[in-house]
Amino acid sequence: MKYIVMLGDGMADYPNKNLGDRTVLEVANTPNMDFLAQNGAVGLAKTIPDGMSPGSDTANLSVMGYDPQKYYTGRSPLEAVSIGIDLGADDVTFRCNLVTLSDSDNYEDAEMLDYSAGEISTKEAEVLINFLNEHFKTDSINLYSGVSYRHCLVMKNAKTGGILTPPHDISLKPIKDYLPKGENSQILLAMMKKSRELLKNHPINLKRIAEGKNPANSCWFWGEGTKPAVTSFEEKFGIKGGVISAVDLIKGIGICAGHQCIDVQGATGNYDTNFMGKAIAAVEFLDSGYDYVYIHVEAADECGHHNDPEHKIQSVESIDHDILGYILPQMQKRGEPFTILLMPDHPTPLELMTHVSDPVPFVLYRSDKKLTPNATVYTEKAAAETGLYIDRACELVNHMIEGKI
């Protein structure tokens, strides 16, 4: 038996007036998702435990089979692992976004114009992060460059206890009520303010402004955490697997779980990603002797954060056509039984431009037997109407392996 998780990050949504009071999944043309729904078990799953923030970190831990209440130690340490940072037991890590703030005389009066600085390129961002680190680095503080706008700050021999806000939660809002509070807040805020001074006239930003792009004119710290301790997936579930993602966070979870990380050329973490390349890589990985592959596609989530319905619909349709439309016939051709778990990690509603904790629609499909309850289409409404509800999404891996629900 081969096991495939197709994780469409943030693709669940709310009915949207601009889409005729329908969700993206209801509007999108998804014949392969609908086929899975018609022949697999369809329902809702709760990926975010009560009291926890609806982040991609906690949600993807759940879907990968790890109870966030037991295994979660923060978002940034998972990304740090992916970057290759060797963390000590007393290190505290922070996610560092390069963001675009509005012009204002005082830092506190600015607005969060763009949490991704116009999806700044990794090459540009690396130069800016290294430039900032020349000013910030000490024996106990170090910045590390990651992918695009996503980077990492490590404080040695530090304590946790900061109150920090993800920048994608405050798009187009004034930042004054969301600045760092609690432990380490003075240091972090001072670095954020200093970064704005340093980045304002950097040649990369001047060039981006001249080209009509958003400048990376500040760093923003959030996602505090400490070194994770995650049981290996093979030890926990008895199968060997891998992860395909363009996002450091998901790669980090995969590495902590002992998975192979499979890089795909042209994987960007947005709607221009190499959808087909991920599908081909997944099938080749399973052909090489592994049992399980976790395909993570960030595109719909990014479009949700930017209130971009056109590209969110396009992203869902590309998952359907380019990934599932390739994987299904390829796996059928091989003749070995296979299982597909299709789901988002959390909704990212267009109208809210951020994550919510609502249960998400899932399909568990097996090629060798029909699971129930079925639905005619894969949508939030259809999943709710079946009455199947999984209160702890971390149990879905067990349902995959056992072949029943």
Outline the fold blueprint:
Elements: E1 2-8, H1 24-27, H2 31-39, E2 41-45, H3 56-63, H4 68-71, H5 76-83, E3 92-101, E4 112-114, H6 122-136, E5 141-147, E6 150-155, E7 162-163, E8 181-182, H7 185-199, H8 203-210, E9 218-225, H9 233-237, E10 241-244, H10 248-256, E11 260-261, H11 275-287, E12 292-297, H12 299-305, H13 309-334, E13 338-343, E14 360-366, H14 380-385, E15 389-390, H15 396-402
Parallel strand pairs: 1-12, 1-13, 2-15, 10-11, 10-12
Antiparallel strand pairs: 2-14, 3-4, 3-6, 3-9, 5-6, 7-8, 13-14
Helix pairs in contact: 5-10, 11-13, 12-13
Description:
By secondary structure, the protein is of the alpha/beta class. The protein has 2 domains: 2-73 and 230-402, Alkaline Phosphatase, subunit A, CATH 3.40.720; 82-225, no CATH class. It is 36% helix and 19% strand. The protein has helices at 24-27, 31-39, 56-63, 68-71, 76-83, 122-136, 185-199, 203-210, 233-237, 248-256, 275-287, 299-305, 309-334, 380-385, 396-402; strands spanning 2-8, 41-45, 92-101, 112-114, 141-147, 150-155, 162-163, 181-182, 218-225, 241-244, 260-261, 292-297, 338-343, 360-366, 389-390. The strands form 3 sheets. The chain has an 8-stranded mixed β-sheet with strand order 11-10-12-1-13-14-2-15, sandwiched between helices. Strands 3, 4, 5, 6 and 9 form a 5-stranded antiparallel β-sheet that branches. It has a two-stranded antiparallel sheet with strand order 7-8. The protein is globular, with a radius of gyration of 21 Å. The two termini are 17 Å apart. The model has no long low-confidence stretch (mean pLDDT 96).
